[in-house]
Request: fold
Amino acid sequence: MSTLQYLLDGFAVAFQWHNLLFAFFGVLIGTAVGVLPGIGPMSGVALLIPVTATLTNGLEPSAAATSAIILLAGVYYGAMYGGSTTSILLNTPGESSSVVTALDGYQLAKQGKAGSALSIAAIGSFAAGIFSLIGLTLLAQPLSNVALSFGPADYFSLMLLGLCAVSGLAGKSLTKALIMTVLGLFLGTIGIDVVSGVARFTFDLPILYSGIEFLTVAVGLFALGEVFKTILENDSTDAPIAKIGRILPSKQELKQSAGPIARGSLLGFFIGVLPGAGATLASFFSYITEKKLSKHPEKFGQGAIEGVAAPESANNAASGGAMIPLLTLGIPGSGTTAILLGAFIMYNIQPGPLLFSDHPDVAWGVIASMFIGNVMLLILNLPLVKVFAKIISVPVKYLLPIIVAISFFGVYAVSFSTFDLFLLLGCGVLGYLFAKHDYPVAPLVLSLVLGPMIENNMRRALTISNGDFTVFLTEPLSLIFLIIAALWMLIPVILKKRGKKVIVNEEG
Reply:
């Protein structure tokens, strides 16, 4: 069957009325998540996993997984759209990938051009989103076919590369990122070992035999951690909000933005495909590129429309690109895709090369829904941008109790365990302390998800090789992945020792 036929079948799934509703509410909530400062896509997706589990209750397992992932993916790329609103109107980015947008976006807003900046951000996001989805459609099947030839040793090294990539670029300190990675791997070992049947770190507590629930840890660290941070540090903003004025951009602004949107889409897509790089680095690099290419670089930082078009296109293209390693190889390239991987596993569906042959309805249904979701976002964002802007002024005293209630009810609805509620509270406190002391939590969640898979593939590789550890070095692909992983960790250290500045991925 051709890729086009698979995609058409995916549209047949995505156009089912309930999936259209899931896509609509996903992008709507995602835009709101992006608009609200502090609640990033990771917190939004983690918070909504238990809600989707309740909403899809009663559907067939694969249909439930498709609908849930459609909603959660909608939150992910919807947040990229919404993040620009607060950057432009308030000079406070809703999420880390929109930090660069604030440089020129807020200056444009002060000049009375907030409407033009917001609409260029929406048009750029739409164009980049569609571009990255075409790339995803064309590359998904060939890449998954290549990945089918991978052996256990190759998978072990590839997952190790994914872990090193995210840890190497997350947060300001490599040591702290590695501590969090090891902590996540340790948490992943708790429970009954499926091969030997030995209880590990359970302290004879039956509740721990099935291991630590990924969902509880993710919701606690991201959502509750953010709540504690807002309460304890009074982390809310009272800055004046700029007026929006005329929404549609002028012909001159559209002409000036066309090149940056095209370059930002291309750059963002390829950066997004790299594990660990993510939307934040994509937006940063595209801004730097446009400034270097511009005939008037002095205008950047003073209100250049190219300074809004390029990073906003890049961060959307990166979110589409980041779905490629997740769907085809089963390797999440960022914190948010790690949470999406956890959601897939919750529905007993393993992303990776077999996803496209075993569950084509899920894989292609999600990809097709992202095309529909991007059109919905453009329709929602252009005329309703003034309505979304009002979300910024929602007082935190109304927002925080809602987040706490969804966290507790959501986790209990999935696990029916009071132990998980205490664990959620503990993870929330830890999430606040980690954020306060600059310990990135994305490597912890990623290693918690990848840890059991890494262990499983390592055991299979060692069983095949009769316990010979050199199998990881004698398999050519495995060796290449291990060398890249080592370089990924060593190059930032060498650059820092030489006094060079290393860019970090704040998404972690």
Strands lie at 191-192, 199-200. The chain has a mean pLDDT of 84. Residues 114-147 form the longest helix (34 residues).
